[in-house]
Amino acid sequence: MGEQKESLRKITHTLALKNEEISNFVCTLKQSLENLEANANRVQEDLESEFNSLYSVLEEMKENMMTRIKQERAGRTYELQQSQLSACSKALESSEELLELANQALCSSETNAFTQQAAKDIKDSVTMAPAFRLSLKAKASDNMSHLMVDFSQERSVLQGLKFLPVPATPEIQISDCQVCDNTVTVVWTLPEPDGKIDHYILEHRRTNHEGPPRIREDYPWMVVEGIRETEHTLTGLRFDTRYMTFRVKACNKAVAGDFSEPVTLETHAFSFKLDCSSSHQNLRVEDMNVEWDGSGGKQDIRKEKNRTNSPMHSPARSALMSPKRAPTTRPGRDRFTAESYTVLADTAIDAGQQYWEVRFDKESKAFAAGVALRSLGRFDQLGKSGASWCIHLNNWLQQTDGQAQQQGRALDCPIPSSIGVYVNYEEGVLSFYNAKTKQLMHTFKTKFQQPVIPAFMVWNGSFSVVTGLQVPSVVQSSQRRNSTSSSNASLT
């Protein structure tokens, strides 16, 4: 009977997953229909706008050319009619009068009247006639062929108008993508070279789901535009989700292609919150910031969705399909009291290598950061019992004292304002680094018998914690060198 129930449970679970997949696909189809309607209207409006713009250009060119023809005609008309035609008419009229006068003189029967002087005067008038000074070549041509336009090439171009070719869909090369040091490098290729590609658009979205993107996602798509190469590196990321999904599309001067198939990359990092219910009553906890308040700070007990205050959750368990934390019994409000100004994280470490950073106010009278066991007593001060390991800063009475405490040994270097904390649970290693330079400050080597929890203490001061960080490559290299040195030393 138990096996049948288990078999039925598996089948039911599979059907539920399939139903969810179909539901997501239905939402995708509905969204595609809406997008199709909107996109079709958009391209239709764009096409009409382009043709109207083209008409406007042609009308403007037509007006300019017509004006040029009218000006040319007016100028030549003036040259031919007002200048040459008028002068020729006057010269012709004067010549006709002189001819008539000369003919009358020649035909006269009165010989006494045709004296030598009269003949000379007539001869001089004819010689100086305007007709002899006129140029009988037209000052302007009647040919207007230089203002003719050959539209054959333009007509051919217009007849060749067609929709722009859509760029091919890129393909993200998962094997070439890299996730390291809280950066992600995404590499993609095109099915074939395309010299008309102007740029690429990359979108990425945080997610806790390994499968294909879902319509109902908690995180929006973030857009990176203007990428000129076929790869891009995102830097300065916080990996507070288990995965990141990427997609990319190519664009030419006027149109964008389709998005590539989304690719999901794992972004493993150690992420936790501060457990408000564990903190001392004099500590004001707001998100990842803590400030000492001598009057008794009010706690910010807001909890994230799907998150409890239990430290039972571990990075090893976070690799499972369900990220929910297992509930556990939690002591009351005064988890720490008296002079134990301590606050714990809400996530325990029981496997793997983890890293986080803490930045504190160097004016703090006292500050400590490290890890602790669950059994850390409510009156225990961090680093002063066998249940915790930490770096401790004491500015009390203006005396700066940096120590690595479980043993209370003074450090050889000053404590920077930003500290990187590294834990290798299996190797029993707890190391502290200068978060900026990644210089090793101190290392505890022990054997963790129980899960450990990030722990912090502050008195008359404040600090903030940065999580979602991968173990830096520099730190990993340093740890490997230290491990090799220790192994070699043990063999001698």
Automatic annotation (TrEMBL):
Instruction: Provide the GO biological process annotations.
Output: cilium assembly; hematopoietic progenitor cell differentiation; Notch signaling pathway; regulation of cell division; regulation of mitotic spindle organization
Q: Where is the COS domain?
A: 106-164
Keyword rRNA-binding: yes or no?
no
The keyword Cytoplasm is annotated on this UniProt entry: no
Please name one Pfam family that this protein belongs to. SPRY
Record-annotated B30.2/SPRY domain positions: 270-474
Which GO CC terms are listed, alphabetically? Answer: microtubule
What's the name of the protein?
Fibronectin type III and SPRY domain containing 1
Tell me what organism the protein belongs to: Tetraodon nigroviridis
The major lineage groups are:
Eukaryota, Metazoa, Chordata, Craniata, Vertebrata
